[in-house]
Every structure is written in C-alpha cells, then in structure tokens.
C-alpha cells in the first residue's frame, strides 16, 4: 500500500515539472519508485513461491522416502534369498517376466529370472550384504545399483524396477563380477 501511495505522490509531483524543477529529478524519482515497486512485488512473489516450494519439498521428500523404502524392500529380498539359500524368498521382488543378464567372455548372456532363483536354492546359506550406490527414480520406474557380496564373491548389480500397484518389481537384473 505504501508503494501505491508513493506512486500517487510521484505522479502528483509531475506538475512540479512546469513549476521550475528539472525533468531529470522527476524522472529519477519516478524511476526509483518504479524499481521499489517492482522489487516489493517481486519479493512477495518469491516469498509465496518459497512457501510453496517448502511444502512441495516436504511432500517430495516423503514420497521419495516411501519410494526408496519400497524399492529397497525388493533389493533386500534379493539379498536375503542369497543369505538363506532359498530362491523362493526373492520371487516376490521380481516380475514373473524378469531377466538376468551379464557378459561372459565378451558375449551377452541373458536368462529368465528363474535361473537366479534356482541358483540361490542350490547354494548353501552364506554371508551376504550390499551397499547402495545409485537409486534413481522417475515416477513409477527406478534404476538401482548396488555393490553386493555373496560369500567371497563380489558383484556390481544393477536393477531396473517398475511400480506394480503399491509394490516395486525388479524387471531386469544385470551384473558384473568384481575381481
């Protein structure tokens, strides 16, 4: 409101142009008042935007945490299956059509995910753990990279996941044995 009052005064003082004050002083006054008005309005807009951004950031952080927990639930099932030597534990983490791929002697190998389940079930229980290195989510799709260890074997595992209802399903697993 103060700015509107000041602008009215600036316009009213324009009549001073004809009473002897220089045009330069009046132009500077009007220019200064215009800048102050723009800055005030801009400040109000930024203030409103900051409030909205804070609310959006909190909402995004909550959604991201929920997504992360859902995604890592699938990864945890994968690792738990290796720990216990039971491929059935991993099945709920994967889509039925999921695949597992790797490079062997420079040649692409790709198999249905059942091969992974069978491998876990054929193995004895072992120490297994992982470290999350990448988790990238866009809407209902995600890419995850972990550094895992099953027994003495170390892997770079990468997964693509898609949200299925309220669950995240791994649709592909690719890996590289680390030496």
Q: How many distinct beta strands?
A: 6
Whole-number average pLDDT?
A: 81
Q: What ranges have pLDDT less than 50 throughout 5 or more consecutive residues?
A: 1-20
| Global geometry | globular
N-to-C terminal Cα separation, in Å? 71 Å
Largest sheet: 6 strands, mixed
- The structure class reads alpha+beta
- Report Rg: 31 Å
What is the percent of helical residues? 40-55%
Query: Tally the helices: what do you get?
Result: 3
What can you tell me about this protein's structure?
The chain has helices at 2-12, 23-84, 114-122, and strands at 94-104, 107-112, 128-138, 141-150, 153-164, 167-178. With 179 residues, it is an alpha+beta fold. The protein has a six-stranded mixed beta sheet with strand order 2-1-6-5-4-3, covered by helices on one side. α1 runs antiparallel to α2. Mean pLDDT is 81; it is low at 1-20.
Gist of the model:
By secondary structure, the protein is α+β, with helices and mostly antiparallel strands. The chain is built from three helices and six strands. It has a six-stranded mixed β-sheet, with helices on one face.
Structural key phrases:
alpha+beta; six-stranded mixed beta sheet; globular; disordered N terminus
């Amino acid at each position: 409101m103060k700015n509107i009052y000041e602008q009215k005064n600036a316009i009213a003082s324009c009549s001073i142009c004809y009473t002897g004050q220089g045009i330069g002083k009046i132009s500077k006054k009007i220019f200064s008042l215009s800048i102050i008005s723009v800055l005030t309005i801009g400040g109000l807009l930024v203030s409103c935007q900051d409030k909205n951004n804070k609310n959006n950031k909190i909402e995004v952080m909550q959604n991201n945490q929920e997504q992360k927990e859902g995604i890592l639930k699938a990864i945890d099932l994968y690792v738990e299956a290796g720990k216990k030597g039971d491929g059935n534990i991993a099945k709920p983490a994967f889509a039925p059509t999921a695949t597992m791929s790797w490079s062997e002697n420079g040649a692409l190998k790709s198999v249905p995910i059942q091969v992974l389940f069978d491998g876990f079930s054929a193995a004895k229980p072992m120490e297994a753990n992982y470290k999350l290195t990448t988790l990238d989510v866009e809407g209902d799709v995600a890419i995850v990279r972990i550094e895992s260890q099953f027994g003495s074997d170390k892997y770079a595992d990468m997964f693509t996941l898609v949200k299925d209802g309220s669950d995240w399903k791994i649709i592909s697993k690719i890996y590289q044995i680390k030496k």
